[in-house]
Amino acid sequence: MQPPTYARGLRGLSIATIATITLAFGLTFFYAPLDADQGFIQKIFYLHVPLAIVSLCGFVLGGVFAIAHLRTDDRRYDMRSYVAIHMALIFSVGALITGSIWAKASWGHWWVWNEPTLVSFLIVVLMFATYQPLRFSIEDHERQARYASVFAIVAGAFVPLNFIAVRLAQGLVHPRVLTLTGGHLPGSMRLTFLVSLAGVALLYATLWKYELTAKDARMQLRSLRRTVLSDAAVTPLGRSAAPS
Amino acid sequence: MSPAVAVLRKDLRLELRTLETVPAMALFSVTAFVIFHFALNRASVDGQLAGGLLTVTLLFAAMLGINRLFVAEREQGGFDAFLLAPVDRNALLLAKAAALFVFLTTLELIAVPAFALLLLKPSIWPPLLGLIAILALANVAFAVVGTLVSALAIHTRARDLIAPIIGLPLLVPVLIGAARGAGPLLQAHASGTPAGKWLAILALYDVVFALLAYAVFDFLLEE
Question: Which of A131, B46, B64, B150 has the highest Cβ tally under 10 A?
Fold first, then answer.
């Protein structure tokens, strides 16, 4: 079986990402109008909301790859699922930090409990933060992959359910910019938002591919060293939760 | 006798003879009420505080049972024996979830009267039926998710740590539904019927996770 070449198209993707993100920042600072209510701080919206959306999609994507892993028993899907969740976790921390800054600026507090979107997001992050410890504490690789996939599926399904429950529990404070109709955003803001969303999504895809490529290259290098030199030439892997 | 019933009978008989899990859970709950009494410095509680206090105590007591659920199987080779038997693997899920449900119900038969006696200000009788409905739905969720998490954690090195850190975030929506549903019931002069939306959230959670557990439990048993 030919090993997957994750590096294919990586250069084009990276260039597209850089171009889109540059364009998004340009639009954010020079094209999108200042918010009449919140002023300049509202511009963090063009970073915060895409980060949150992309990380939630990344978590669900990890669950989808996990389903593929359990169905096909192909370890490459486990790797894809792991990297998807790993990257989504990093993006979600970014979303929490930018969200906190925005909350401080517009509501006066770093953290607002009566805000369902914020709280459900935190619960989801806490949920997925246990993914790495779970992998870490299972030594058998095959079992680790299987259990991690089961976790990813359960947690992926948990994301929408959790949002429903928390939203019912609290009032609505968050600006509802994510309605299907595009909310009440004026056209210029909506365009900027969509370009930012595309930029962050491309960034996610690029980083996902980069991590896969790096992990794949490392594994190939190790197996080459093992066959060409000897077992002793391969330094043992450090403790890691990553599939190998 | 179906395999699920056989495993359930085994678990219940084991519990009756060893008295390991349920008494510990009950003792934990009563101790927790005493702790809450001192921590909150209140002789009695009502309303949302009472609802939250009761459901949080039950949730943590349930974690004790969830941690113990598969210990006998692991220590005495029950998993291998079950895998060797020509039966549907989901029978184990069904049996374990049913056992946990029975444990939790028994626990509540002790913990809820103790709570009413020690801490609750209004009478327990008017809201009792509504409370039973909420706790029954919450027990199903605890049982299903608990079985799943317990099976996930039992083969890990740090299983006593893994089960709560995965289980608690996963059960947050259940806690929201149960605590917010029970809160208004435990007020003085409450109507006694729980709000439909909390029952609906609990029921939705039960159905989704029961289906999910049924779909993925197989993969936790393969050797």
Answer: B150
Q: Hunting for tokens 């809201």 — which residue is that? A: B127
Q: Does B172 touch chain A (CB under 8 A)?
A: yes
Which among A127, A137, A161 has CB closest to B205?
Answer: A161
How many A/B residue pairs have CB atoms within 8 Å?
A: 80
Contacts of B205 in chain A (CB under 8 A): 161, 165
Q: Enter the ipTM.
A: 0.86
Chain B residues with beta carbon closer than 8 angstroms to that of A154: 148, 170, 209, 212, 216
Model confidence pLDDT, tens digit, residues B104-144: 999 999 999 999 999 888 888 888 889 999 999 999 999 99
Residue partners of B56: CB distance under 8 A and separation at least 6: B175, B179
Q: What is the pTM of this model?
A: 0.87
> What would the pLDDT profile of B33-84 be if each residue is shown by its tens digit?
999 999 999 888 888 999 999 999 999 999 999 999 998 888 888 888 888 8
